[in-house]
Amino acid sequence: MSKPYISIIIPVYNEEPNLQKLLARLYPVMTALGKPFEIIFTDDGSRDRSLEILREMAQSHPEVKVIEFNGNFGQHMAIMAAFEMSAGEIVVTLDADLQNPPEEIPKLVAEMEKGHDVVGSVRQKRQDTFFRRAASRIVNITTNKMTGMQMSDYGCMLRAYNRTVIDNLNRCQEMTTFIPALAQTFASNPSEVPVSHAERAEGESKYSLYRLIRLNFDLMTGFSVVPLQLFALLGILTSVASVLFALFLLVRRFLIGSEVEGVFTLFAILFFFVGIIIFGIGLVGEYVGRIYQEVRRRPRYVVRRTYGFE
């Protein structure tokens, strides 16, 4: 086989019902492009028949390659492992749940061939619940403000990168990361294209509310110190307000005299300040925890076996 021009990266975790449908739609799309390609699946410790199906695909399709993880290391580590083993000049990431149609890939490839080094996608008419759409919008706006980046849709993994950006991503060895934002830091000419969106055909979403919150914490603390700066500013403002309030109470005591009323109001104010302190400790702990993860230097993931690369 000639060296692939396009690499398709697909992380897989318990996607048994979707894999055959995915390949049945993806393979004709890639063949129609008329350029050498490879499709790399990373099985992220699936507990269903996903790995068995992927092995069969690798045997029947020479373009299909499979990386088998030794456990569940997360979507972004699955993608990073495939990045390191990919060979294409254009690398496209795609989820296995068919919510982002494979038929949109030529649109990203065409945009890359115009000279862009990173091409993101913006989901149109999203087939998600109102809660997830609203939460996504809030996260996109907040993250843009905190990181200084400008992306319309952080949550869509249908994205394309050129080889230079991929090589820079492969040099990064942090334990927790968010690939779209990390790639954006290396991009000199990024772009975005609108893509369609579909409901999940089979199975359940792998991102619970807790995992979404966890991912957003990683995104904000991994690419900016703005949260710490905002908290420091809040601390300063709170201190100033506390001094002004103490002066107010002192003047009030001289004018009105001592009184018992207002004790519960003071308790409420005290609890508010204690809440701010606890929040600040948690925020600092988030950064310290990331440092702790990095200094241990444990492997980010463990590859048990690969299929199709030989």
TrEMBL record:
<keyword id="KW-0812">Transmembrane</keyword>
<dbReference type="InterPro" id="IPR029044">
    <property type="entry name" value="Nucleotide-diphossugar_trans"/>
</dbReference>
<dbReference type="Pfam" id="PF00535">
    <property type="entry name" value="Glycos_transf_2"/>
</dbReference>
<feature type="transmembrane region" description="Helical">
    <location>
        <begin position="230"/>
        <end position="251"/>
    </location>
</feature>
<keyword id="KW-1003">Cell membrane</keyword>
<dbReference type="InterPro" id="IPR050256">
    <property type="entry name" value="Glycosyltransferase_2"/>
</dbReference>
<keyword id="KW-0328">Glycosyltransferase</keyword>
<keyword id="KW-0472">Membrane</keyword>
<feature type="domain" description="Glycosyltransferase 2-like">
    <location>
        <begin position="7"/>
        <end position="167"/>
    </location>
</feature>
<dbReference type="GO" id="GO:0005886">
    <property type="term" value="C:plasma membrane"/>
</dbReference>
<keyword id="KW-1133">Transmembrane helix</keyword>
<protein>
    <submittedName>
        <fullName>UDP-4-deoxy-4-formamido-L-arabinose--undecaprenyl-phosphate 4-deoxy-4-formamido-L-arabinosyltransferase</fullName>
    </submittedName>
</protein>
<keyword id="KW-0808">Transferase</keyword>
<dbReference type="GO" id="GO:0099621">
    <property type="term" value="F:undecaprenyl-phosphate 4-deoxy-4-formamido-L-arabinose transferase activity"/>
</dbReference>
<feature type="transmembrane region" description="Helical">
    <location>
        <begin position="263"/>
        <end position="288"/>
    </location>
</feature>
<keyword id="KW-0448">Lipopolysaccharide biosynthesis</keyword>
<dbReference type="InterPro" id="IPR001173">
    <property type="entry name" value="Glyco_trans_2-like"/>
</dbReference>
<dbReference type="GO" id="GO:0009103">
    <property type="term" value="P:lipopolysaccharide biosynthetic process"/>
</dbReference>
